[in-house]
Design goal:
The protein is built from nine helices and seven strands. The chain is α/β, with parallel strands linked by helices. The protein has a single domain, classed as Rossmann fold (3-Layer(aba) Sandwich), CATH 3.40.50. It has a seven-stranded mixed sheet, with helices on one face. A hairpin with a 3-residue loop joins strand 6 (197-203) and strand 7 (207-212). The longest helix is centred in the last third of the chain and has 17 residues, at 231-247. The mean pLDDT is 96.
């Protein structure tokens, strides 16, 4: 399936749930529709023309869903999963232990991720460390999942590192937290790069998927920098992003208004932790 029109029919919603049975054993914060989309993207959309890159894989939840689809389709390339592979005690109690992970000491989760991803070991390469400090030398990228956009500087760094390798007309950029109210800079960056990406899917709860339509070059990387922008520029870009998504037929007016509200209330925020949680 290579025609972008296929996205309008949301074919991932009809996915047989048994196809995700093995991956479902790996904890994830992805919503059900997002999990189905990840499997569909690697099993039906990709043509094995490039790598799959998963930025911010937690303990492997998103990677498992991507790998399950990758395996189902019989692809031969690799899924490259990047993360710090660290966790605090509160997150263990809230996200891991209720999902059947046995209590463990320390903050490192790399060994846990390796164990959880054992069914797909031969098709996964794990990259521990700060994502913004990583390099990419593994060729073209066909699917790029971004779930580590917790600051403007991290967004800019990931763009510089990975966008140059996207395959025009083929590569999907899956912005997992695009509509999450605490991260307005994701929408801002993708709107800066509107000439290079077309939104093709809204996958609840927070994901907007983009098709790369034009080669990314050094000029595009300069255009896409969020960190130098003023508050007024960011507000304008958020409004433009909202109108573009609505024009594309996506029911996103409320979450986009929440992003705009966040920018208004916190005009100088550059990190998610600069924005207080809602009470």
């Amino acid at each position: 399936m290579t025609d972008p029109a296929i996205f309008k029919d949301h074919p991932w919603d009809a996915l047989d749930p048994t196809l995700l049975a093995q991956a479902a054993k790996v904890p994830t914060m992805l919503a059900p529709a997002e999990q189905r989309f990840y499997f569909w993207a690697t099993s039906e959309w990709m043509q094995d023309e490039g790598a799959v890159v998963d930025l911010g894989c937690y303990v492997g939840g998103s990677t498992a869903r991507l790998a399950a689809g990758h395996q189902y389709a019989g692809h031969t390339g690799l899924i490259h999963a990047f993360d710090r592979f660290g966790i605090n005690e509160a997150a263990k109690e809230h996200f891991l232990y209720p999902r059947g992970i046995a209590p463990f000491e320390g903050t490192e989760t790399l060994d846990l991720a390796i164990d959880l991803l054992t069914p797909w070991t031969e098709r996964i390469s794990l990259h521990p460390g700060q994502i913004e400090d990583q390099i990419w030398e593994d060729g073209p990228i066909e699917i790029l999942v971004m779930d580590a956009s917790k600051s403007t500087r991290t967004m800019d760094a990931m763009m510089r590192t990975f966008f140059l390798s996207l395959i025009p007309g083929r590569a999907l950029v899956v912005q997992q937290d695009y509509l999450f109210w605490r991260l307005p800079w994701i929408a801002i960056q993708m709107e800066l790069l509107a000439d290079y990406f077309t939104p093709v899917a809204f996958v609840p709860e927070h994901t907007i998927v983009f098709l790369n339509t034009k080669p990314i070059d050094a000029d595009a990387l300069k255009v896409g920098m969020v960190t130098p922008l003023s508050h007024e520029q960011r507000l304008d870009l958020l409004e433009r992003a909202k109108q573009r998504l609505i024009a594309a037929g996506f029911d996103v007016e409320q979450p986009m208004n929440e992003l705009i509200e966040t920018q208004v209330k916190h005009p100088h925020a550059e990190r998610a932790r600069h924005i207080p949680l809602k009470t």
